[in-house]
Amino acid sequence: MSSDIFSRPLDVAKYGLIYGGAQKNLSMAGVTFVIVKEEQLGKVNRPIPTMLDYRTHVDKGSMFNTPPVVPIYCALQNLKWIKAQGGVEEMERRAKARAELLYGEIDRNKLFCGTAKEEDRSLMNICFVMKEEYKELEAEFQQYAAAAGMQGIKGHRSVGGFRASCYNAMSIEGVQALVNCMKEFEAKH
Q: How many angstroms separate the CA atoms of 103 and 97, rounded?
């Protein structure tokens, strides 16, 4: 798990092991987490390095190696913030609101189109491109958006275009600013 961690309720009991990267909704890069059922520990049919054997980490209280203290502290503070906001249920509500706002504009705007089928759309990373007939405006929109304060929307490496990362910390106002930018750019063309 990565982008969607702590963005929606999840029944962890359904999984034998969850391995997650924290650098999206939990903390900064440099820390990962593992949730593993005890009955899964040691179920390997070949020798593995000590570092990769989760029993080692369980036996050592997650202190087998030097932990990345700052990212772990950041995760703790972020978990406190999520709880204070209303928990993962509130994070999911906000994620849906952000996505509805941005996908609504992508679907409405004559210049843009989404890259994922509607049923497969991400709530965390919203990818979109210029419609084929407006493809030549892509670089201009990138510059226009940057001048309006939109940072980091250059497209995903596999699909190009644009990507709006809407992780838990993104405000609805930030998404609205991108939507306003898209509307203004449409009005110019």
A: 10
User: Residue 94 and residue 151: Cα distance in Å, rounded?
Assistant: 21
Show Cβ contacts of residue 80 under 8 Å, excluding neighbours closer than 6 positions. Answer: none
Question: What is the chain's pLDDT, residue by residue, as a tens digit (189 residues)?
Answer: 888 889 999 999 999 999 998 888 999 888 888 999 999 998 888 999 998 899 999 999 988 888 889 999 999 999 999 999 999 999 999 999 999 999 999 999 999 999 999 999 999 999 999 999 999 999 999 999 999 999 999 987 777 899 999 999 999 999 999 999 999 999 999
| Calpha distance 92→9 (Å, rounded) | 8
Q: How many CA atoms lie within 13 A of 2 on its CB side?
A: 8
